[in-house]
Amino acid sequence: MGNLTPELAALRDETRDLAKSYGLDFYEVIFELVDHDELNMIASYGGFPTRYPHWRFGMEYEHLTKSYAYGLSKIYELVINNDPCYAYLMRSNALTEQKLVMAHVYGHCDFFKNNAWFAHTSRKMMDALANHGSKIRRYMDRHGQERVENFIDVVHSLDNLIDPYSPYIDRGNDARQLARAAEGSTREVQKIAAKDYMDRYINPPEFLKRERERMQKEEQQSRRFPARPARDVLKFLLDNAPLETWQQDVLAMLREEAYYFAPQGMTKIMNEGWAVFWHSKLMTRHLCDASEIVQYCDTHSGTLATRPGQINPYKMGVELFRHIEERWDHGRFGAEFQACDDPEVRRKWHRPTNEGRAKVFEVRRIYNDVTFIDEFVTPEFAEDQKMFVYGQDPQTGQLMIVDRDYRKVKEQLLAALTNFGNPIIKVVDGNYRNRGELYLVHEWVGGDLQLEQAQMTLQGLYQLWQRPVHIETIEGGKGRLLSYDGEAATSTEVTASHPAVGRVGSAKAAEA
Amino acid sequence: MSVRRIDQDHTRFRQIVRGKIKQNLKRFVSSGELIGKQGQRYVTIPLPQITLPKFRYGENQKNGVGQGEGEPGKPVPGQDGDGQGQAGEDEGKHSIEVDVPLEDLAKILGEELELPNIEPRGRKSLSSLAGRYTGISRAGPMSLRHFKRTFREALKRQIASGTYDPDHPLVIPIREDLRFRALQTRSIPQASAVILYMMDVSGSMGREQKDIVRIEAFWIDTWLRHQYKNLEVHYIVHDAVAHEVDQHTFFHLRESGGTKISSAYELCLQLMRDKYPAQEWNVYPFHFSDGDNWSTRDTEHCVSLLKDSMLPACNQFCYGQVKSAYGSGQFKKDLDTAFRGEEKVVTTDIQDRDGILPSIKSFLGRGR
């Protein structure tokens, strides 16, 4: 494996040693030299050439091939989170570009290995996905391609309904805790200890009644199914939907893949920023010779180019890492700095702490995009980067700059990054109306769902659940319930939420 | 690495897009806009895409964060001036703008829609031979010897037979290795064609309807230009009376009033008789309207004009009916009834922009 030319192999060794000397730490990286068509093909499969057959990959391939053929874009680098890491180099790239890509790849590999959000991902995914591929292919042989593919289509349309944080925290949904809760509910009302003659004062009937009601309510709650709203809808379906064995298996595999790819979505800005941070350091300090610098700059600036209406994750990430390094080199942190609100003083602040390098390594270990932006976008950063919030002018349809305040900018960025820009949807009831119907709730946080698509998604969901399915959401400030019962799709206005939902009335939540 | 597994997936995707398999997904196919800018050569490549439905946010709030110059309250720089309001499909890929020569564009169109090449009629001497020395052959005069190819062959032979010694890289061609440049002939169409566009500009044809006609006409032009060397185009607009106009007027004029379709057909026939005899010209009349006509009497008149005079003198008559809020759509029904089984008459319904490609396909898909 690894088919580098001797020249590239020597370059790889040089780059690897340099990266190590800066403290980067990675699994072994295997570079493969491929031509553009192979690269497009591998990229279409998300980096794993042995994945299961699906038209979606063919669509991706057509898009990549066409944009390559018309000279719109080309893929420079592709690297797989695996042990060993696999990285692909395009054969037609110039030597300078290969250098850049290698340095960039080592940045990614370090990030994969050390960032906490990747800690749970399987490092043998190359094998796992190949296994998924052959299993699904076998199912297709047995049950027919059409049938299996249709099932996959349905799962794809639901595959954003996972709980990206579940690998890291305990949602208290596991069986043991639920059993304990159920046990508690059979108790008698606990009286507060008191002498007999004081009892009716300390434990008056109203108090006992209130307690009893509270316990009943708790009991009721624990009898709910699921006991607590389940954010991992795919898991809920896996455990509870009436699926055939092969369907269960396919669903489990696709869910596993969704979880494997989730951290890459959670750290897009950081991961790219980190890779650019290191390629630019390694290239400009060591790898480029004088004759290559112009070509390097050309390629590098192409990567970092921004268009006014967009955020480029490469640019945003690297600038933020550099900003952090600078701040921690000059001691621009801590309570005293935070308290200072004179922009002049803040800009000139200088206490030679020189902790920048250590800080960026710490940041790459424990942060993800949301916390990264939340903590490190400062007023100075937003100003230097000329960041703004835009909105659409309702009359002309043009996009207008609305605000340059860094708080607004941050708010907007965070909103877009939360849950990868997907709505948060939970299962609150798997036995709605005591008729085995499925009830989902969209946790409204500022954006309405696209109702038409939601309705069609419900129809797919129905194929899995095989009983009527509902989703409660808010549209134009009013509660709305979309339902599909296998024949008719309905959309009704609702005023009261499902009892298991925390919010009082949907309309109220919308106001807030 | 497995061999070209992607080809299977790609074929499957193409089949879904073409509606050959998995009809249930057909409704999620979007074809992307065709023209980005009308300025000579800017176009967008059709990039069909299947978007599976998901629970996702609606389009209603279009705000985000950007980087760049500008005061609050000013437009974000770098947008297109004229309101391309709802350009976006959803997040991710939009159709892409790219500079492509018209020639290539026609090829792309032909590939996308699987259009057959037209077999022109009229004069027999349709193509003449022209040639360039772009081919390679094994025989030829020494003056056309291709050195590089010859030596490559020799090298291949020597390596294969084991007589090549890298330390003494001596390559000697023998007779079998010789390669020569060869004349490659290709046929160049000599036939001439004329397109006669007719459009209803009565009050019911709104801006969107005209845009649809404009896009469709652009593609028809492109394709026919690719097929014929000499292409002439005439534009006719009509409400109750018909006029011949220039291209700009054709697409921008907004008249109002009644609709008398026969007026346009008469003018069209006039042109055909005067200038474009069927023996020498391939004639393509296209008519676009929203399907409303003045009276059933006039419709009958149209049908007889078509039947008696127009059809014998043209390759194919195409009628595209653009859906508008006011049009009754009756005219297409009348034509369909009158010309059932007539191959030379093609009628299509264009509901919206997504209907343009299928409509072009049925107009040009017969190779007439």
How would the blueprint of this fold be written?
The complex is a heterodimer of chains A (512) and B (368).
Chain A: H1 6-21, E1 29-34, H2 36-44, H3 55-69, E2 77-80, E3 85-90, H4 95-114, H5 125-143, H6 145-158, H7 175-184, H8 196-202, H9 205-223, H10 233-240, H11 245-266, H12 268-287, H13 293-304, H14 313-329, H15 334-339, H16 343-348, H17 356-366, H18 369-376, H19 379-384, E4 387-392, E5 399-403, H20 406-417, E6 424-432, E7 437-443, H21 451-465, E8 469-475, E9 478-484, E10 489-493, H22 506-511
Parallel strand pairs in A: 1-3, 7-8
Antiparallel strand pairs in A: 2-3, 4-5, 6-7, 8-9, 9-10
Helix pairs in contact in A: 1-4, 2-3, 4-12, 5-6, 5-11, 6-11, 6-21, 12-14, 14-17, 18-20
Chain B: H1 5-17, H2 23-26, E1 29-30, E2 42-44, E3 49-50, E4 64-67, E5 97-99, H3 102-113, E6 127-137, H4 147-161, E7 180-189, E8 192-200, H5 207-227, E9 230-238, E10 242-245, H6 247-252, H7 261-275, E11 281-289, H8 296-310, E12 317-322, H9 330-338, E13 345-350, H10 356-364
Parallel strand pairs in B: 8-9, 8-11, 11-12, 12-13
Antiparallel strand pairs in B: 1-3, 2-5, 6-7, 9-10
Detailed description of the structure:
The complex is a heterodimer of chains A (about 500) and B (about 375). Chain A has four domains: about 5-115 and about 265-290, Arc Repressor Mutant, subunit A (Orthogonal Bundle), CATH 1.10.10; about 125-165 and about 230-265, no CATH class; about 305-415, no CATH class; about 425-510, no CATH class. In chain A, about 55% of the residues lie in helices and about 10% in strands. Chain A contains 22 helices and ten strands. In chain A, the strands form three sheets. In chain A, strands 6-7-8-9-10 form a five-stranded mixed beta sheet. A three-stranded mixed beta sheet of chain A has the order 1-3-2. In chain A, helix 5 (about 125-145) packs antiparallel against helix 11 (about 245-265) and helix 6 packs across helix 11. Chain A is globular. Chain B folds into three domains: about 1-50 and about 95-100, no CATH class; about 115-125 and about 190-365, Rossmann fold, CATH 3.40.50; about 130-185, no CATH class. Helix content of chain B is about 30%, strand content about 20%. In chain B, helix 7 runs parallel beside helix 8 (about 295-310). Mean pLDDT of chain B is about 75; it is low at about 35-40 and about 80-95. Chains A and B meet through helix 2, helix 3, helix 6, strand 4 and strand 5 of A and helix 1, strand 3 and strand 4 of B. Strand 4 (about 385-390) of chain A pairs antiparallel with strand 4 (about 65) of chain B, so a sheet runs across the interface.
